[in-house]
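Section 3.1: Structural characterization of target chains.
Under the original work plan, the team committed to producing a structural model for every single-chain target entering the pipeline before any wet-lab resources were allocated. The record below documents one such target. The sequence was received from the expression subgroup and is listed exactly as submitted; it comprises 517 residues.
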Amino acid sequence: MFNFDTEHSKLNSILENPPILRLPSEILDHCWSYLRRRDLFQVSGVSRVFWYTSRSRIFQSLNVTLPSPAVPPLNQNLVRRSTNKAPKMLERAATRITSFYSDPSASELWDMVQDWTVSTAPAIRNSMFFFARSQEKNLASRSVDAIFPFLTCSRNLRSLELVRVNLGRQQWIIIECLPALDTLRLISCFFPPSSHLERPLKLKELAIAGDNFGPRSIEERLVSVLCNPTYLQKLTLIDFLITHTVLAVLSSMAPFPHLTYLSIFVTSPSRDHFFRFLATIPALATLRIFPWSANITPPHPLPPLSSLRSYDGYPNLLSYIVPGRPVDCVCLVLMMVTTDDDRPDYAIHTELVSTVRDISRSTVPVRKLAIEYFLPTLDNLAAIAKHLPDLHRLDLGLISGPPPLTPEEIITLSDSNSEFDLDHTGEPLDTVDTMQGLLSCLAEGRAPLPPKLVTLRLSHSLMGNEDIQCAEGVKQRKLIRCLHDKYPTLREVEMGGCRWWREGVYWSREILEFEET
């Protein structure tokens, strides 16, 4: 017999304490890891359980953008309006930070903050407006001075990113007082002379990056403060203006026994410093030569680098780096700088077959290969399939070659030279529709892939060609099935904004959306 009171009581119990609220906090935290920050704010307002399990992710990072007044050209009224507006923006930013760190009930949240980003907005500058530029400089200083002291309130702060910040002595003192800080990223920052500290920081990760808009420089002593050989594990140097100075100092310092990752921008004058510094990194596992670096080669034999597993850079240096070392991941940029002056020239590396042979001389099977500015010819694809049979992942950033010869041109060449041989193995597979044409050639068996390939990703190195996104899904599915028949281990194919993946024998299609998280 149905008991209404009993069932009503069960329903109320479920409504008051639904099953999802009884899940372990670890599972809920894992669920929240898939959400964007703005979605986490929505989730936190659903219930008390959701609030307590999501707040650590909400307050894990703080981003503060400080005003830098715009200076529009040829309009004094706009200049006056922009410089009057900026202090109000600063006041609002400072008020919010002050309110957060002045509330005793929020003290538990302070310790949840692990990442800070402080950036000043870029300004439009014009040499005509000296008054506005002076005001901008003063405002930037006041912005940093108002916000920076609050860094010390987050005792568990581990990562700090500073963008376009003028780092005076007061800022360095505050940075030194952060007990848990192990990661520091300095993006287009300014380093006033004699403003730093004398005691080296204990950073595990350091990134110094910036453009070539200056003037911007760094003192040698500050380099030794930031780069502590005892602790440093990951180093990124891609600041166009100060990397040469940093490399000169690093090449004369003690060895870095724990440094495993190096991403660097190298110019021709920095070549010798770079290779000397390389000799001080015995545990290096990942080496990345930043694009637009000079096309350098070592003047002397390289150090053993017996722990190197990944190389990302130009082909010419690869022939000195990969052979004889346990490298299983290679990323190649085939567009190289041919000069190193104020107006550099660029050229596409065309000897890919010999480069692939060098890659195959690694002491371990190469599992991952990525190539930017790849010209899809039968020669290039056959070389990859032949010399890298253990490849599991292949990423190709495609470019188109020159237009093919017309029949009339072929006849003319044939008549003019009896020894003329029509060898198409070095010509692009499809010059009109590169990505779709390449996929068709692969599916039809006219071009080979490594036999153990699991993931194939195709994209365009040059923007403006998105042909594959408009292709019909039915046609793509047929091509993917043909590929799978020829390469049974294949599980994922990505083409521009479209991704196919396999579970069992069934393939699914996904349209990729690239949006900020």
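The chain has 17 helices and 18 strands.
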